[in-house]
């Protein structure tokens, strides 16, 4: 239980919620966070990924119709930056295509029109945590325009 207490006392999750969070340790390295307010839980999940002492914290909702053994801790959500994208292709379609090449596309932070003139396209993807992270991919922006994108 000492690790659970240390996590809560030193981790920014506590500052991101409006109500109390109950923490129970199920087993070593496995904590259950019980939120009094569902929007607090959604906010914490949306801000993932989290880390503690340099280690990835895999967060997953626990629907009450599932047993603990049925939960999936093999995937986590990550924000990635894709570089070398022509301004013309800085859009949701390109973000979704790139995101699905890397993992499972979740969201792209395209922002306002003037933000297209940026060095990176910011994409949230779900990745398997047992696979190595991809550092670059090849992408065709048009039939004759292939680029290597840095991730």
Automatic annotation (TrEMBL):
Domain of life: Eukaryota
Segments passing through the bilayer: none
One Pfam family it belongs to: DUF4283
DUF4283 domain sequence ranges: 19-68
Protein name (record): DUF4283 domain-containing protein
Source species: Handroanthus impetiginosus
Lineage: Eukaryota, Viridiplantae, Streptophyta, Embryophyta, Tracheophyta
């Amino acid at each position: 239980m000492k690790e659970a207490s240390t996590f809560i006392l030193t981790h920014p999750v506590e500052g991101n919620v409006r109500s109390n969070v109950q923490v129970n340790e199920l087993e070593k390295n496995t904590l259950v966070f019980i939120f009094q307010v569902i929007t607090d839980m959604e906010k914490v999940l949306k801000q993932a990924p989290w880390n503690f002492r340099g280690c990835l914290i895999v967060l997953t909702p626990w629907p009450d119709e599932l047993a603990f053994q049925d939960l999936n801790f093999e995937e986590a959500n990550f924000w990635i930056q894709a570089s070398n994208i022509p301004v013309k292709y800085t859009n949701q379609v390109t973000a979704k295509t790139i995101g699905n090449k890397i993992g499972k596309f979740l969201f792209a932070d395209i922002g306002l029109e003037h933000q297209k003139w940026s060095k990176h396209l910011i994409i949230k993807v779900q990745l398997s945590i047992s696979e190595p992270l991809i550092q670059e991919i090849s992408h065709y922006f048009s039939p004759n325009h292939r680029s290597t994108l840095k991730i």
